[in-house]
Design a protein that fits this description.
With about 350 residues, the protein is an alpha/beta fold. About 40% of the residues lie in helices and about 25% in strands. The chain contains twelve helices and 15 strands. Helix 4 links the parallel strand 1 and strand 2. Helix 1 crosses helix 3 and helix 11 packs antiparallel against helix 12. The longest helix is centred in the first third of the chain and has 35 residues. It catalyses: chorismate = prephenate; prephenate + H(+) = 3-phenylpyruvate + CO2 + H2O.
Length: about 350
């Protein structure tokens, strides 16, 4: 075909796509109306997972990479969510942080985003109805647990309804060319994570620690300093990326949690998070965890935190495979209660993949 004919073919396909997208949104709006009438949640993580799996299956053998197909459908579903209920997402701010980026990767560009100054503020926004969902960091593959998030779960009725894994990629960015950079600004932790690269490539340039990577990007947009921040920050502040993936440790990933009023429905590939405190008797922790093993449940994480009630008393946070509605999980939790002073299911949700 000639170039002109190929472009006409594209125009015809675009007309069909736009028509079908509008039809899909109309059906989604009807579904949203029905869910509201039945008192259900607008955002349903189990359904989201099923849609993505179906799209991947339908896309097999096609020219479109699976990652691209999922990204397209993320935005299609984001537009539908925004039209259904004007969904509001609160996240640990300021804008353009990795938490903001994680939230966008989960909910897309069409819903409302509201930054909060602390993890406690994110929980409060969802509890008070000022946001429908919150996104908070829970652990990093190199720096470990985010203890402030764990501590919030002991005093809330909110549930974990989804998880997000975000690879952390740090970039050097500026509004001037590399030769004109006078100094490099970023959060102290980010500067530390890029120390070897900076020493090898930017020796002789002053480093300044600031409150956040976002603040550094904002400063770089107004001066001749460079910032170490995310791709998202470069996009938001119109900065040129001078170098990518400058962090010294590759594979650095942060896990985030989506918190809301309800758990997700079972998908067959789920994770459950609980916290518990044991009774004051010898072997209570061993016996409590033994209930998981006895019922064939794989524990993927355990974290301890001070209980806050008495000195040297602890509560334990555990992640394991399976959904709280699964028969073997129900049995295990019932057996654990015999050895626990307190046991709370924080949420069951689809495993991120």
């Amino acid at each position: 075909m000639s170039l002109d004919k190929l472009r006409k073919k594209i125009d015809q396909l675009d007309a069909q796509l736009v028509k079908l997208l509008n039809e899909r949104v109309s059906v989604a709006l009807e579904i949203g109306k029905t869910k509201k009438e039945q008192g259900g949640e607008i955002y349903v993580p189990s359904r989201e997972k099923a849609v993505f799996e179906r799209i991947s299956e339908l896309n097999k053998g096609g020219s479109l990479p699976d990652k691209s197909a999922r990204a397209i459908y993320r935005e299609i579903m984001s537009a539908a969510l925004a039209l259904e209920s004007n969904l509001r997402i609160c996240y640990l701010g300021p804008p353009a942080t990795f938490t903001h980026q994680a939230a966008r990767s989960k909910f897309g560009a069409s819903v409302e985003y509201h930054p909060a100054g602390s993890i406690a503020d994110v929980f409060a926004a969802v509890e008070n109805g000022n946001a429908d969902y919150g996104v908070v960091p829970i652990e990093n593959s190199t720096e470990g647990a985010v203890t402030h998030t764990f501590d919030q779960f002991t005093g809330t009725t909110l549930k974990i309804c989804a998880e997000i894994y975000l690879p952390i990629s740090l970039c050097l960015m500026a509004s001037v060319s590399g030769e004109k950079v006078s100094r490099i600004c970023s959060k102290q932790e980010a500067l530390g994570q890029c120390r070897h690269w900076l020493n090898a490539n930017m020796s002789g340039i002053e480093f300044d620690a600031v409150n956040s990577t976002t603040l550094a990007a904002e400063m770089a947009s107004k001066s001749d300093c460079a910032a170490i921040a995310s791709h998202f920050a470069a996009e938001l502040y119109g900065l040129d990326i001078l170098a990518e993936n400058i962090q010294d440790v590759s594979g650095n990933t942060t896990r985030f949690l989506v918190i809301g009023a309800q758990c997700s429905e079972p998908t067959g590939d789920d994770k459950t998070s609980i916290y518990f405190g044991t009774k004051h008797k010898a072997g209570a922790l061993h016996d409590a965890l033994g209930a998981l093993q006895a019922n064939g449940i794989n524990m993927s994480k355990i974290e301890s935190r001070p209980s806050g009630d008495k000195v040297w008393e602890y509560v334990f946070f555990v992640d394991f495979e399976g959904h709280a509605d699964n028969p073997n999980v129900k049995k295990a939790l019932k057996e654990m209660e015999d050895h626990c002073a307190v046991l709370t299911v924080l949420g069951s949700y689809p495993k991120a993949g």
